[in-house]
Amino acid sequence: MATFEIKGLKELQKHLGNASQASFAKMNTACKKGADLVLQSQKAEAPKDTGEGANALSIVACRTGKGFCFYDVGINSTNWEQTKQLWFHNFGYYNHWTNTRICMHVGWFQKALNQCKQQVQSELLRAGRAMVEDIFS
After folding, report:
1. Residue 61: CB partners within 8 Å, gap ≥ 6?
2. pLDDT in 10s for each residue of the chain, 137 residues
3. Which residues pair with 70 in a beta bridge?
């Protein structure tokens, strides 16, 4: 029976743990930049003839944990009163006064996401590559 000893394993685990924390901070910054890009695109594409709702669009929540981060961008309960007309225009609505369905801005939200998708993906991939380089350098 052969026996062997591996030296430096604890140091390697410590190094990887420290590197991953620093790298995660960089990735979180990249996620924030991505959320900012989405917000800019939403504000640019939001219907302008529906009031000041576009100005109320915002990064409404940030949820982070060990190894993940999520940014909610656009409309939620915190800015609903200022932005609800944008929500209705995105999906269309029925005008009971004129008995017509209003569909003039249907899909503006998806159009905004499609326009910034490549930029956001590039930003996240750049940060991901940097994170991997930090961990293994």
Report:
1. 70, 71, 72, 76, 78
2. 566 676 777 777 776 666 666 677 778 888 999 999 999 999 999 998 877 889 999 998 898 877 788 899 999 999 999 999 999 889 988 888 999 988 888 899 999 999 999 999 999 888 888 877 776 66
3. 63
From residue 40, how far is each of 34, 44, 60 by CA, in Å?
Answer: 10, 6, 14
Is pTM beyond 0.70 here? Answer: yes
Helix (H, G, I), strand (E, B) or coil at 13: helix
Give the Cα separation of 98 and 18 in Å (integer).
Answer: 63
Q: What token pair was written down for 117?
A: 């998708």
Q: What is the maximal distance between C-alpha atoms in the chain?
A: 88
Query: Which structure tokens are listed for 20?
Result: 């991953």
Name the nearest CA neighbour of 28 among 69, 73, 71. 69
For the CA atoms of 118, 119, 121, 123, the dihedral, rounded to the nearest 10 degrees, stands at 160
Task: Please choose, from the candidates 41, 60, 43, the residue with its C-alpha nearest in 3D space to the C-alpha of residue 52.
Answer: 43
